[in-house]
Each structure stands twice: as structure tokens, then as C-alpha cells.
């Protein structure tokens, strides 16, 4: 329990220190013009170093943990995150790193995790695909691509105050619940450390964003989060893979819907836009209540509105943690609901305007 409390406290302290070091942070940061970006939903340009606070808190706890406990998993996971964290941080301080460059960095981090942990996704709970999963080359390639894609997915949902942090926290708690039921205490411990560290940062990002998570935070936390399900699938045969996908559902659903939509529109899948569900919900709130100058209120409220829908698949995954067939059915139902939410949100905005 003390380690989880320390993760929370360290994250808060590091975040406050970074917040009050804004003069130095500004000095090393090149102008980015985030407020003018097509996908922007915020006012002002807070420093994008919140992810640094969370990762530093996890590093501090990992050092304490290795002194007093026998563990090699947490330090190795933190070591593997460095490539994508550095690429994201470079982008955050104005040294432009293209989406393709950040995706490649996420691939390097995934390869590092496979090498350091000696683990990967051993199965998919899809019969025909599982026939090929015993081949390490196939399983490792799929693991690396899924890991890199998930990092990018978490970055895509980092568009509202507190949204990405809330998703990571809730998903990490869901992973902890599943790993506890599967009798994997080390994985449970890391998931709770991740949740506690992210919660420590949350008050600085919601309701008003004094710090942004940044690409370093979004990609870094995405990498750490997705490797919890990988390790669970690697260490136990009883955990259903679709249940793990339910626990990390929101970023997966968002990125899959985005890719399919952009392919249908013959648009680049790497270019930002304002068509994510959280952006549609914010515009709906502006249209119905706040007006087009109401971002300061509609932005944090969007996260609150979405919280029940973010939590529902996570809770479902924890309940169906060892029932693959039921979990696949639930996953399909939630994917359908997520897709329908897009036109329904637009229709509701037009109806109530």
C-alpha cells in the first residue's frame, strides 16, 4: 500500500515542481502553436510535460521497490518505454517528430519490451489466428504492431482535459482486478502503481489544464498500460484475451473507428482531424449549452460525460475475465455501440440546438 501512496505523492510533487518551473520549461521549449491545431479543443498552451511527472514517479517507486523487494518487471518495463518517451518528449518541446517517427519509436519500445521481458502475446483466442501464434516470429510481430498502435491510440484520445489520464487510470485498475483474480500479484502491483501515478497527475490536468500529459506521457503511459495485458496473457492461460481488450477498450475503439473512417474517406490515417467521439461530444455541449466560445467549460465536462461509457467495458472485462466467448460477444456489442455513438451524438446536437 505504501508504494501506491508514494506513486501518487511523487507524481503530484513532480507535477507541481514542473508547473512552478514554467520559466525554465518555456526556455527549452520551441513555439508549437497547439491552440491553432485543427484538433485543438483547449484554451491557452500549458506545458506538455505532465507525462514526465508520472514517469518520474514510477521510476522513483521502482528504485525503492528494487531495494526492498525482489522484482525485475517494473524496472525492465520502465527501461523499455524510453525510446517512445524520448520521441514524445522531443515533440512536446517543439522538436518536431512526425507521427510516423513516433510510431517507429513505439515499435522500438515494443521490441525492447519483448527483449527485456522475454514475453509477448502468446495467443489471441481467435481459432485460426491462434494456429499461427505458436510461431514466435508471428506472435512477436503481432505483439509489436499492437503495442505500437495502442501507444498511438492513447495519444489520439488525449484531446480533452483529464480524458487520457482517466482512461489510463480506469484501464489500469481493470487490469489490476483481472490480475488479482488470476493470482498474479506482481502484475497487480504494477497496474496499481500506474493507476496511482496517473491519479497523482490528474488534478493538474482536470478540470482545468495547468499541465498537459503531452506526447511523452500519452505514448509512454500507453506503452506501459498495454504491456500489462500482454504479461497477463503470457503468464496465465485462464485470462480471456477479449476480456483484456475490453479493459483497454476506449483507445482501441477510437483508433479502429478513426482508421476505418479515414480509409472510407480516402484520407490519410496519420493526419489529425476533429472527428473523434470526444470532439463530437464537446461540440455537442457547445451547441446545446455553452456556445462556440465555451471550451473552458465544455472541455472538462466532456470527460465527465464520457466516464460511464469508458468504465462500462472495463467493468465488463473484469467480470468476464475467464470467459472468452462471452467476452468476444461483449466486445462486439461495445464496438457497435461506439460506432453508433458517432452519428447519434451529431443527431442529438442538431435536435437540441
Automatic annotation (TrEMBL):
InterPro entries: Glycosyl_transferase_4 (IPR000715). GO terms for biological process: cell wall macromolecule biosynthetic process; cell wall organization; lipopolysaccharide biosynthetic process. The keyword Zinc-finger does not apply. Keywords: Cell membrane, Magnesium, Membrane, Metal-binding, Transferase, Transmembrane, Transmembrane helix. Its cofactor is Mg(2+). Its main location: membrane. The chain crosses the membrane at residues 6-25, 46-68, 74-91, 103-121, 133-151, 163-181, 187-204, 216-234, 240-260, 301-319, 325-346. It is a multi-pass membrane protein. It is found in: Cell membrane. One of its GO terms (cellular component) is plasma membrane. Pfam families: Glycos_transf_4. One of its GO terms (molecular function) is metal ion binding. Mg(2+) binds at residues 155, 215. The keyword Metal-binding applies. PANTHER family: PHOSPHO-N-ACETYLMURAMOYL-PENTAPEPTIDE-TRANSFERASE, UNDECAPRENYL-PHOSPHATE ALPHA-N-ACETYLGLUCOSAMINYL 1-PHOSPHATE TRANSFERASE. This is UDP-N-acetylmuramyl pentapeptide phosphotransferase/UDP-N-acetylglucosamine-1-phosphate transferase. It comes from Phaeovulum vinaykumarii. The lineage of its organism: Bacteria, Pseudomonadati, Pseudomonadota, Alphaproteobacteria, Rhodobacterales.
Amino acid at each position: 500500500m505504501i508504494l501506491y501512496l508514494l506513486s501518487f505523492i511523487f507524481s503530484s510533487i513532480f507535477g507541481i515542481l514542473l508547473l512552478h518551473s514554467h520559466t525554465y520549461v518555456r526556455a527549452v521549449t520551441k513555439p508549437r502553436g497547439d491552440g491553432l491545431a485543427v484538433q485543438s479543443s483547449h484554451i491557452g498552451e500549458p506545458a506538455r510535460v505532465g507525462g514526465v511527472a508520472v514517469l518520474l514517479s514510477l521510476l522513483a517507486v521502482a528504485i525503492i521497490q528494487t531495494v526492498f523487494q525482489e522484482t525485475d518487471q517494473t524496472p525492465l518495463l520502465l527501461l523499455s518505454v524510453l525510446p517512445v518517451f524520448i520521441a514524445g518528449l522531443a515533440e512536446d518541446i517543439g522538436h518536431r517528430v512526425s507521427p510516423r517517427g513516433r510510431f517507429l519509436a513505439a515499435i522500438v519500445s515494443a521490441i525492447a519490451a519483448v527483449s527485456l521481458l522475454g514475453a509477448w502475446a502468446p495467443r489471441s483466442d481467435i481459432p485460426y489466428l491462434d494456429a499461427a501464434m505458436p510461431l514466435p516470429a508471428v506472435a512477436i510481430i503481432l505483439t509489436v504492431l499492437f503495442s505500437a498502435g495502442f501507444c498511438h491510440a492513447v495519444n489520439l484520445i488525449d484531446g480533452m482535459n483529464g480524458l487520457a489520464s482517466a482512461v489510463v487510470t480506469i484501464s489500469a485498475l481493470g487490469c489490476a482486478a483481472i490480475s488479482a483474480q488470476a493470482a498474479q500479484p506482481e502484475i497487480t502491483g504494477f497496474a496499481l502503481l500506474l493507476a496511482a501515478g496517473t491519479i497523482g497527475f490528474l488534478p493538474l490536468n482536470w478540470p482545468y489544464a495547468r499541465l498537459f500529459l503531452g506526447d511523452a506521457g500519452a505514448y509512454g503511459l500507453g506503452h506501459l498500460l498495454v504491456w500489462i495485458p500482454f504479461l497477463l496473457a503470457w503468464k496465465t492461460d485462464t485470462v480471456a484475451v477479449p476480456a483484456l481488450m475490453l479493459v483497454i477498450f476506449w483507445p482501441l475503439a477510437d483508433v479502429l473507428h478513426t482508421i476505418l473512417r479515414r480509409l472510407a474517406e480516402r484520407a490519410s490515417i496519420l493526419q489529425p482531424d476533429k472527428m473523434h467521439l470526444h470532439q463530437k461530444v464537446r461540440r455537442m455541449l457547445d451547441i446545446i449549452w455553452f456556445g462556440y466560445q465555451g471550451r473552458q467549460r465544455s472541455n472538462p465536462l466532456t470527460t465527465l460525460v464520457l466516464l460511464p461509457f469508458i468504465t462500462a467495458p472495463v467493468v465488463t472485462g473484469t467480470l468476464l475475465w475467464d470467459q472468452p466467448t462471452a467476452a468476444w460477444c461483449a466486445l462486439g456489442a461495445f464496438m457497435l455501440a461506439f460506432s453508433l455513438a458517432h452519428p447519434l451524438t451529431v443527431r442529438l446536437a442538431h435536435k437540441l440546438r
